[in-house]
Specification:
With 97 residues, the chain is mainly alpha-helical. It has helices at 2-5, 12-40, 45-91.
Length: 97
Amino acid sequence: MKDFLKFDVMITPKFITAIFYVFSALAVLMGIIAIIGGLAMERGGGQAVLMGLFMLVFGPVFVRIWCEVIIVFFKMNDHLGAIAKDITEMKGGAKAE
């Protein structure tokens, strides 16, 4: 609890997985809706179908890349904290804050 209140423990990475699933499902759903909408059009529906296919295939990929970039920042924070702790232990100093 003390680490949580001092912001030493990050809770956001735990939410990133849920965010990935929600936004991936939304991307797939939007792709399906665009495909159905494009097929229902009398004219010009081909572009909507292609955009729907694009969203269906690449939407979850882009969401995954976005989530991975966010997680990289949190991993860097964790590793930098471990490095700071190791350096202070090697010097025999006080605990790193």
